[in-house]
Specification:
alpha/beta, Udp-n-acetylmuramoylalanyl-d-glutamate--2,6- Diaminopimelate Ligase, Chain: A, domain 1, 283 residues, 10 helices, 2 domains, six-stranded mixed sheet
Length: 283
């Protein structure tokens, strides 16, 4: 039986249903047709022009991405419209584009969980549960979902050595599909601070500072934390480790690869993680 874009979408939505996405988000098949056949899939975080050309050279019929390429209203498909360049290139190459974003962030293969496993956290729980989980419905079938995780180190560690151990472990863990440079990471807090409970949120996690403080975290690891959020965290005696947006989310690429390649109905399909998609920051 031929594998179609629609079948790949169904497989992804088994662990990250589109209904889990935020109202402002734009997930699912954004370019292409669900009936199109698939022989090769390219997995990426961002749908850049470079990645589209990589998919073309690879012979991929479908890009599975984390970030949507169409967020704001796309008013035209003119070649001089920067927002339209990627969709136009995809259409020209006849490559489909499927995005799993905030629904994937809440799934069992979120980067938050992968990073927590690298750190060796115990008793991991969802940091901010979806309101859905709080509605008492008997025999609920769907998996509990929410953003981020929190958990405990096996024993308390000082922040300085802990952060070094974490970055060293990231480099050796294999959760990054490519050898991304761990540059541009930032740490705020006393290096002598004792850390026992850690909260992790992949992506832009500045808004989770109050939640992590409320949950009693000694350290929040996330990305894109602004100046004032860091000050709030430090006022609450919580350290902050900022990996940046890309590095905090890239573990999902390997997780998605492993999930799709393990799917029996996709046996025979070639799947690859993009080697060109990297953080846009130079350092």
């Amino acid at each position: 039986m031929a594998v179609t874009v629609g079948l790949v979408a169904q497989i992804i939505e088994k662990i990250a249903p589109k209904s889990w996405a935020e109202d402002w988000d734009n997930v699912g098949l954004l370019v292409g047709s669900g009936s199109d056949s698939v022989e090769r899939i390219l997995i990426t975080l961002d749908g850049t022009l470079e990645v589209v050309e990589e998919a073309k050279a690879y012979g991929a019929q479908l890009i599975v991405a984390h970030h949507p390429i169409i967020f704001r209203p796309l008013k035209n498909l003119r070649a001089d419209n920067a927002a339209a360049r990627v969709p136009l290139r995809l259409l020209g190459h006849q490559i489909g584009y499927y995005a799993a974003h905030t629904n994937l962030d809440q799934s069992i293969i979120s980067s938050s969980r992968a990073l927590g496993e690298v750190l060796g956290l115990q008793e991991m729980k969802i940091l901010e549960e979806s309101a859905y989980n709080l509605i008492p419905i008997p025999k609920r079938d769907e998996t509990a979902r929410g953003y981020g995780i929190s958990g405990y180190l096996k024993k308390p560690e000082k922040l300085g050595p802990l952060w070094k151990r974490f970055l060293d472990s990231l480099s050796q863990s294999g959760i990054y599909a490519q050898p991304y440079e761990l540059s541009g990471v930032r740490l705020a807090g006393s290096l002598e601070k004792e850390v026992r409970k850690v909260a992790i949120v992949n992506g832009s996690g500045g808004r989770f500072v109050p939640k992590a403080l409320f949950k009693g975290a000694d350290l929040l690891i996330t990305g894109d934390v602004d100046h004032h959020a860091v000050l709030d965290a430090l006022e609450g005696d919580m350290a902050v480790g900022d990996l940046g947006h890309f590095l905090s989310e890239a573990p999902m690429l390997q997780a998605m690869y492993q999930y799709l390649t393990a799917e029996k109905s996709l046996q025979g399909i070639e799947i690859r993680v993009s080697s060109l998609n990297r953080s846009p920051w130079l350092g």
